[in-house]
User: Fold this.
Amino acid sequence: MNTEVPPTLNMIGCGKAGRTLGQLWHRAGVFNIGGVLTRSIESASAAVGQLGAGTPLRSLSELKSAELTLIATPDQEIKDIATSLASSGVLDRDSIVFHLSGALDSSLLRQAGLEQVKVASVHPLRSFADPNLSAAEFAGTWCGFEGDSEAEHSLYSAFEKIGAHMFRIEPDRKLVYHAASVMVSNYLNALIESGINAFQLAGIDRQSASAMIVPIVRNTCENIINSDPGSALTGPIMRGDWQIVKRELENLRELDPNLGDVYKILGKATLSLAESNSLLNAEQVSKLGKVLS
Ligand SMILES: NC(=O)c1ccc[n+]([C@@H]2O[C@H](COP(=O)([O-])OP(=O)(O)OC[C@H]3O[C@@H](n4cnc5c(N)ncnc54)[C@H](OP(=O)(O)O)[C@@H]3O)[C@@H](O)[C@H]2O)c1
Assistant:
């Protein structure tokens, strides 16, 4: 029987990401959830209800000492909260304070005055929409760590116990790392919405367009996952059919200039992909390059 007492985790901010991780850690016995502070006692109580653990707090002054503190607020709040934490008197030299931002690194916490404690950031490369669903699907999520080496062991262990694959990110590369995450996740939403809008311009109602795209999106993603974006490429650019690309771009621009821009910009990226995979001859590259310039 494991009689080890789990370390206590205080949570400041407990929305989509916090509620997902908090309930997983609680269920797995990784952490004893301590104080939970949000913007109101009502939302803190709701968060505690969803986690099944913790004590809702009204203010930072009610926080009791804990081995770890997670700041799971929106990114723009992290620095001010870290400043308040630094003067709260609840932290000691062994305390670990970490946040979940993909764009910001942990030096932000030091700059805010957390100089005597261990600081880190761990970014789960996942979109958390519904905490219960995200908790059920969390295993296998890649999580990028950067921060103090003294915090590394505890945080790797805490995330690995709930199924994460941990990796290290260089702090000065976090912005470009996060831009990459935005492209493969959020921009995919925007791209698919653009496609649905273009289907509507073709006279297909939104509901039908939304249903029609399901097999093609799934199939394209599976092909990419099973090989790589270049090998899985199909369509007029990959075939070097610059006449069709030209006419499609003109047509789209006429009906909706913004959709024309999306088609053109991603057409250029698609051309680079086809070119780097040696799928086109020099003439096709040159003709397509002119059409998409
Ligand atoms: N959502 C994702 O897909 C995702 C993925 C990876 C990383 N992250 C990172 O996770 C962090 C949290 O994002 P999220 O999506 O979970 O945000 P969220 O759902 O908006 O939740 C934010 C939480 O912070 C609380 N909060 C806001 N301002 C506060 C303040 N001044 N003091 C105390 N609590 C405050 C909110 O309180 P109320 O409950 O009262 O509103 C809420 O509980 C961010 O750093 C984000 O970059 C998010």
